[in-house]
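Data deposition worksheet. Section B asks for the primary sequence of the deposited chain exactly as it was used as input, without tags or linkers unless they were present during the calculation. Section C holds the resulting structure in C-alpha coordinate form. Section D is free text for depositor observations; keep each observation to a single sentence. Incomplete worksheets are returned to the depositor.
Section A, Depositor: J.P.
Section B:
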Amino acid sequence: MEKNLNYYRAIQNSIGCSDKSDWIRENTIRRLEQDFENPVDVETFMFWNFGKEMQTPVRLEVVDEKYSDVNGDVLKATSLLSTPLKVGNILYRPDIDEYYLCKESYKKSRMFYKCALVRCNYWMKWQDKNAKIYEYPVFEINSTQYNSGESGDKTITLGSSQHLVTITADENTILLDHGQRVFWDRNAVNPTVFKITQNDTTAMNYDKGLLKITIAEDERNPNRDSIENWLCDYYEVSEVTILYDGQSTIRAGGTKTLMVDTDKTVVWSVEGDIAAEIIPDGNSAKIKCPNNHSYIDKEIIVKAVVEEAEDICQLTVTGGV
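Section C:
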Protein backbone atom coordinates (compact mmCIF):
# COMPACT_ATOMS: atom_id res chain seq x y z
CA MET A 1 0.00 0.00 0.00
CA GLU A 2 2.84 2.37 0.88
CA LYS A 3 4.45 1.65 -2.48
CA ASN A 4 1.23 2.49 -4.32
CA LEU A 5 0.82 5.74 -2.41
CA ASN A 6 4.39 6.79 -3.13
CA TYR A 7 3.89 5.86 -6.81
CA TYR A 8 0.80 8.03 -7.15
CA ARG A 9 2.38 10.89 -5.19
CA ALA A 10 5.40 10.91 -7.50
CA ILE A 11 3.22 11.05 -10.61
CA GLN A 12 0.88 13.64 -9.07
CA ASN A 13 3.80 15.88 -8.26
CA SER A 14 5.18 15.56 -11.79
CA ILE A 15 1.92 16.64 -13.50
CA GLY A 16 0.61 18.96 -10.79
CA CYS A 17 -2.41 16.92 -9.65
CA SER A 18 -3.74 17.18 -6.13
CA ASP A 19 -5.51 13.81 -5.81
CA LYS A 20 -5.97 10.47 -7.51
CA SER A 21 -9.10 11.46 -9.46
CA ASP A 22 -7.28 14.46 -10.95
CA TRP A 23 -4.38 12.20 -11.88
CA ILE A 24 -6.71 9.74 -13.62
CA ARG A 25 -8.39 12.60 -15.52
CA GLU A 26 -5.10 14.18 -16.61
CA ASN A 27 -3.72 10.81 -17.61
CA THR A 28 -6.84 10.10 -19.69
CA ILE A 29 -6.60 13.49 -21.40
CA ARG A 30 -2.97 12.87 -22.30
CA ARG A 31 -3.82 9.45 -23.65
CA LEU A 32 -6.67 10.94 -25.70
CA GLU A 33 -4.32 13.53 -27.17
CA GLN A 34 -1.84 10.83 -28.15
CA ASP A 35 -4.46 8.51 -29.60
CA PHE A 36 -6.60 11.17 -31.28
CA GLU A 37 -4.62 11.14 -34.53
CA ASN A 38 -4.83 7.37 -34.95
CA PRO A 39 -8.52 6.61 -35.71
CA VAL A 40 -9.56 6.71 -39.36
CA ASP A 41 -12.66 8.70 -38.32
CA VAL A 42 -10.66 11.77 -37.25
CA GLU A 43 -11.27 14.54 -39.80
CA THR A 44 -9.80 18.02 -40.26
CA PHE A 45 -12.20 20.98 -40.28
CA MET A 46 -11.57 24.74 -40.50
CA PHE A 47 -13.32 27.51 -38.57
CA TRP A 48 -15.24 29.82 -40.96
CA ASN A 49 -16.07 33.45 -40.17
CA PHE A 50 -17.54 36.00 -42.57
CA GLY A 51 -14.91 38.20 -44.19
CA LYS A 52 -11.96 36.33 -42.66
CA GLU A 53 -9.56 33.74 -44.03
CA MET A 54 -9.91 30.19 -42.76
CA GLN A 55 -6.68 29.58 -40.85
CA THR A 56 -7.50 27.67 -37.66
CA PRO A 57 -7.82 23.89 -38.19
CA VAL A 58 -9.68 21.67 -35.75
CA ARG A 59 -9.51 17.88 -35.60
CA LEU A 60 -12.77 16.08 -34.86
CA GLU A 61 -13.41 12.40 -34.33
CA VAL A 62 -16.67 11.65 -36.15
CA VAL A 63 -18.49 9.00 -34.13
CA ASP A 64 -21.87 8.94 -35.90
CA GLU A 65 -23.72 10.44 -38.88
CA LYS A 66 -27.48 10.39 -39.38
CA TYR A 67 -29.96 12.03 -41.75
CA SER A 68 -33.61 12.95 -41.21
CA ASP A 69 -36.05 15.23 -43.04
CA VAL A 70 -36.40 17.44 -39.96
CA ASN A 71 -32.87 17.52 -38.56
CA GLY A 72 -30.91 17.19 -41.79
CA ASP A 73 -27.49 15.54 -42.03
CA VAL A 74 -26.08 15.55 -38.49
CA LEU A 75 -22.57 14.54 -37.43
CA LYS A 76 -21.84 13.48 -33.87
CA ALA A 77 -18.23 14.17 -32.99
CA THR A 78 -15.73 14.73 -30.20
CA SER A 79 -12.95 17.29 -29.92
CA LEU A 80 -10.07 17.81 -27.54
CA LEU A 81 -10.05 20.46 -24.81
CA SER A 82 -7.35 22.29 -26.76
CA THR A 83 -9.77 22.88 -29.67
CA PRO A 84 -13.18 23.53 -28.10
CA LEU A 85 -16.27 23.95 -30.26
CA LYS A 86 -18.98 26.47 -29.42
CA VAL A 87 -22.64 26.46 -30.38
CA GLY A 88 -22.83 28.69 -33.45
CA ASN A 89 -19.38 27.92 -34.87
CA ILE A 90 -19.30 27.40 -38.64
CA LEU A 91 -16.90 24.67 -39.78
CA TYR A 92 -15.64 23.97 -43.28
CA ARG A 93 -14.67 20.44 -44.29
CA PRO A 94 -12.14 20.89 -47.10
CA ASP A 95 -11.85 17.27 -48.24
CA ILE A 96 -15.48 17.21 -49.41
CA ASP A 97 -16.14 20.99 -49.67
CA GLU A 98 -18.98 21.12 -47.12
CA TYR A 99 -19.99 23.54 -44.38
CA TYR A 100 -21.43 22.68 -40.97
CA LEU A 101 -23.10 24.54 -38.10
CA CYS A 102 -22.32 23.48 -34.54
CA LYS A 103 -25.71 23.15 -32.84
CA GLU A 104 -24.66 21.26 -29.67
CA SER A 105 -21.45 21.28 -27.64
CA TYR A 106 -20.68 20.39 -24.05
CA LYS A 107 -17.67 19.32 -22.01
CA LYS A 108 -17.72 15.66 -20.99
CA SER A 109 -16.18 14.86 -17.59
CA ARG A 110 -13.79 17.80 -18.06
CA MET A 111 -11.84 15.64 -20.52
CA PHE A 112 -13.19 16.36 -24.04
CA TYR A 113 -16.08 18.00 -25.92
CA LYS A 114 -19.05 16.18 -27.40
CA CYS A 115 -20.76 18.06 -30.22
CA ALA A 116 -23.37 17.81 -32.96
CA LEU A 117 -22.87 19.45 -36.36
CA VAL A 118 -25.60 19.93 -38.98
CA ARG A 119 -24.55 20.14 -42.63
CA CYS A 120 -25.50 23.42 -44.30
CA ASN A 121 -27.72 23.09 -47.36
CA TYR A 122 -28.03 26.66 -48.65
CA TRP A 123 -26.18 29.99 -48.89
CA MET A 124 -28.13 33.01 -47.70
CA LYS A 125 -27.13 36.19 -49.54
CA TRP A 126 -28.38 39.69 -48.82
CA GLN A 127 -27.47 43.36 -49.05
CA ASP A 128 -28.03 45.70 -46.14
CA LYS A 129 -29.25 49.27 -46.39
CA ASN A 130 -25.68 50.52 -46.47
CA ALA A 131 -25.10 48.46 -49.66
CA LYS A 132 -22.81 45.94 -47.95
CA ILE A 133 -23.26 42.39 -49.24
CA TYR A 134 -23.24 39.31 -47.00
CA GLU A 135 -23.32 35.60 -47.75
CA TYR A 136 -23.54 32.86 -45.09
CA PRO A 137 -23.95 29.07 -45.14
CA VAL A 138 -27.19 28.06 -43.40
CA PHE A 139 -29.34 25.05 -42.63
CA GLU A 140 -32.94 25.39 -43.71
CA ILE A 141 -36.11 23.31 -43.79
CA ASN A 142 -39.51 23.85 -45.34
CA SER A 143 -41.87 24.64 -42.48
CA THR A 144 -45.07 25.06 -44.54
CA GLN A 145 -47.97 23.20 -42.97
CA TYR A 146 -51.65 22.67 -43.57
CA ASN A 147 -52.21 24.85 -46.63
CA SER A 148 -52.33 24.46 -50.38
CA GLY A 149 -49.13 26.43 -50.91
CA GLU A 150 -50.90 29.43 -52.40
CA SER A 151 -52.84 32.41 -51.13
CA GLY A 152 -54.45 34.95 -53.37
CA ASP A 153 -56.75 37.90 -53.88
CA LYS A 154 -58.06 39.72 -56.91
CA THR A 155 -54.71 41.40 -57.51
CA ILE A 156 -52.08 38.70 -57.27
CA THR A 157 -51.62 35.11 -56.20
CA LEU A 158 -48.59 34.27 -54.05
CA GLY A 159 -47.26 31.02 -52.73
CA SER A 160 -47.75 30.70 -48.98
CA SER A 161 -44.77 28.51 -48.24
CA GLN A 162 -42.38 29.38 -45.43
CA HIS A 163 -38.99 28.10 -44.37
CA LEU A 164 -37.14 27.97 -41.05
CA VAL A 165 -33.50 29.03 -41.38
CA THR A 166 -30.76 28.29 -38.84
CA ILE A 167 -27.78 30.64 -39.08
CA THR A 168 -24.87 31.58 -36.84
CA ALA A 169 -25.37 34.58 -34.56
CA ASP A 170 -22.92 37.43 -35.11
CA GLU A 171 -22.89 41.21 -35.49
CA ASN A 172 -24.23 40.93 -39.06
CA THR A 173 -26.94 38.29 -38.77
CA ILE A 174 -28.45 39.61 -35.52
CA LEU A 175 -29.34 42.81 -37.41
CA LEU A 176 -31.38 40.94 -40.04
CA ASP A 177 -34.77 42.60 -39.71
CA HIS A 178 -38.38 41.96 -40.68
CA GLY A 179 -38.94 42.61 -44.36
CA GLN A 180 -35.41 41.74 -45.53
CA ARG A 181 -35.92 40.02 -48.89
CA VAL A 182 -33.77 37.25 -50.35
CA PHE A 183 -33.77 34.84 -53.27
CA TRP A 184 -34.52 31.32 -52.03
CA ASP A 185 -34.39 28.85 -54.87
CA ARG A 186 -32.21 26.59 -57.01
CA ASN A 187 -34.05 27.85 -60.09
CA ALA A 188 -31.76 30.62 -61.33
CA VAL A 189 -34.06 31.51 -64.25
CA ASN A 190 -37.29 32.24 -62.40
CA PRO A 191 -36.33 32.20 -58.70
CA THR A 192 -38.71 32.58 -55.79
CA VAL A 193 -38.31 35.51 -53.40
CA PHE A 194 -38.80 35.22 -49.65
CA LYS A 195 -38.83 37.85 -46.90
CA ILE A 196 -38.00 37.62 -43.22
CA THR A 197 -41.04 37.56 -40.95
CA GLN A 198 -39.21 36.70 -37.71
CA ASN A 199 -35.62 36.67 -36.44
CA ASP A 200 -35.49 34.81 -33.13
CA THR A 201 -32.23 35.96 -31.54
CA THR A 202 -32.76 34.48 -28.05
CA ALA A 203 -33.96 30.85 -28.24
CA MET A 204 -30.48 29.48 -29.06
CA ASN A 205 -28.41 32.03 -27.13
CA TYR A 206 -25.71 29.59 -26.01
CA ASP A 207 -21.99 30.31 -26.49
CA LYS A 208 -21.69 32.12 -29.83
CA GLY A 209 -25.30 31.19 -30.52
CA LEU A 210 -27.66 30.43 -33.37
CA LEU A 211 -30.56 32.36 -34.88
CA LYS A 212 -33.86 30.87 -35.99
CA ILE A 213 -35.16 32.96 -38.89
CA THR A 214 -38.60 32.46 -40.44
CA ILE A 215 -39.00 33.48 -44.07
CA ALA A 216 -42.22 33.60 -46.09
CA GLU A 217 -42.77 33.72 -49.83
CA ASP A 218 -42.95 37.21 -51.33
CA GLU A 219 -43.53 38.85 -54.70
CA ARG A 220 -40.51 39.37 -56.93
CA ASN A 221 -39.90 42.94 -58.10
CA PRO A 222 -38.14 42.83 -61.48
CA ASN A 223 -37.15 46.50 -61.16
CA ARG A 224 -35.32 46.06 -57.84
CA ASP A 225 -34.40 42.36 -57.61
CA SER A 226 -31.25 41.35 -59.49
CA ILE A 227 -31.10 37.70 -60.48
CA GLU A 228 -27.65 38.29 -61.96
CA ASN A 229 -26.29 39.41 -58.58
CA TRP A 230 -28.67 37.11 -56.64
CA LEU A 231 -29.75 40.04 -54.48
CA CYS A 232 -33.20 41.42 -53.75
CA ASP A 233 -33.63 45.20 -53.44
CA TYR A 234 -30.23 45.46 -55.09
CA TYR A 235 -28.44 48.71 -55.72
CA GLU A 236 -24.91 49.12 -56.96
CA VAL A 237 -22.17 50.13 -54.57
CA SER A 238 -20.68 53.49 -55.50
CA GLU A 239 -17.96 55.73 -54.17
CA VAL A 240 -20.68 57.83 -52.53
CA THR A 241 -21.92 56.46 -49.22
CA ILE A 242 -24.68 57.99 -47.11
CA LEU A 243 -23.74 57.90 -43.43
CA TYR A 244 -25.94 58.15 -40.33
CA ASP A 245 -25.97 57.29 -36.63
CA GLY A 246 -27.78 54.23 -35.31
CA GLN A 247 -30.17 52.10 -37.33
CA SER A 248 -31.68 52.89 -40.74
CA THR A 249 -34.96 54.00 -39.17
CA ILE A 250 -36.84 57.23 -38.59
CA ARG A 251 -39.73 57.85 -36.20
CA ALA A 252 -43.07 59.10 -37.43
CA GLY A 253 -42.93 62.81 -36.63
CA GLY A 254 -39.17 62.63 -36.06
CA THR A 255 -36.01 63.67 -37.88
CA LYS A 256 -32.86 61.92 -39.14
CA THR A 257 -29.59 63.54 -40.19
CA LEU A 258 -27.69 62.02 -43.09
CA MET A 259 -24.32 63.00 -44.51
CA VAL A 260 -21.80 62.17 -47.23
CA ASP A 261 -18.09 62.42 -46.47
CA THR A 262 -17.10 64.72 -49.34
CA ASP A 263 -16.11 68.32 -50.07
CA LYS A 264 -17.98 68.27 -53.39
CA THR A 265 -21.53 69.42 -54.02
CA VAL A 266 -24.17 66.94 -52.90
CA VAL A 267 -27.64 66.96 -54.47
CA TRP A 268 -30.20 65.52 -52.06
CA SER A 269 -33.68 64.23 -52.93
CA VAL A 270 -36.45 62.13 -51.40
CA GLU A 271 -38.31 59.44 -53.31
CA GLY A 272 -41.31 57.29 -52.48
CA ASP A 273 -44.93 57.80 -51.43
CA ILE A 274 -44.19 59.47 -48.08
CA ALA A 275 -44.22 63.27 -48.22
CA ALA A 276 -41.07 63.63 -46.15
CA GLU A 277 -39.36 67.02 -45.91
CA ILE A 278 -35.65 67.31 -46.69
CA ILE A 279 -33.48 70.19 -45.50
CA PRO A 280 -30.10 70.06 -47.29
CA ASP A 281 -27.02 71.66 -45.73
CA GLY A 282 -23.99 71.06 -47.93
CA ASN A 283 -22.83 67.48 -47.51
CA SER A 284 -25.54 66.74 -44.92
CA ALA A 285 -29.32 66.75 -44.93
CA LYS A 286 -32.03 66.57 -42.28
CA ILE A 287 -35.02 64.37 -43.08
CA LYS A 288 -38.35 65.14 -41.41
CA CYS A 289 -41.00 62.42 -41.39
CA PRO A 290 -44.68 63.44 -41.12
CA ASN A 291 -46.36 62.46 -37.86
CA ASN A 292 -48.66 59.98 -39.54
CA HIS A 293 -48.91 56.47 -38.06
CA SER A 294 -50.13 55.05 -41.35
CA TYR A 295 -46.52 55.43 -42.55
CA ILE A 296 -45.17 52.99 -39.93
CA ASP A 297 -43.17 50.12 -41.55
CA LYS A 298 -43.04 52.01 -44.85
CA GLU A 299 -39.80 53.41 -46.26
CA ILE A 300 -38.46 56.86 -47.07
CA ILE A 301 -35.88 56.62 -49.84
CA VAL A 302 -33.22 59.34 -49.78
CA LYS A 303 -30.83 59.82 -52.70
CA ALA A 304 -27.49 61.64 -52.63
CA VAL A 305 -25.80 62.50 -55.95
CA VAL A 306 -22.18 63.66 -56.22
CA GLU A 307 -21.23 64.37 -59.83
CA GLU A 308 -21.76 61.03 -61.65
CA ALA A 309 -21.95 58.86 -58.52
CA GLU A 310 -24.95 58.34 -56.27
CA ASP A 311 -26.14 56.40 -53.24
CA ILE A 312 -29.55 55.75 -51.73
CA CYS A 313 -30.62 55.24 -48.14
CA GLN A 314 -33.83 53.48 -47.18
CA LEU A 315 -35.24 54.67 -43.83
CA THR A 316 -37.95 52.52 -42.28
CA VAL A 317 -40.61 54.49 -40.39
CA THR A 318 -41.13 53.35 -36.79
CA GLY A 319 -43.50 54.35 -33.98
CA GLY A 320 -44.10 58.05 -33.44
CA VAL A 321 -42.26 60.38 -31.07
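Section D:
The helical segments are 2-15, 20-35.
Residues 43 and 60 are 5 Å apart (CA to CA).
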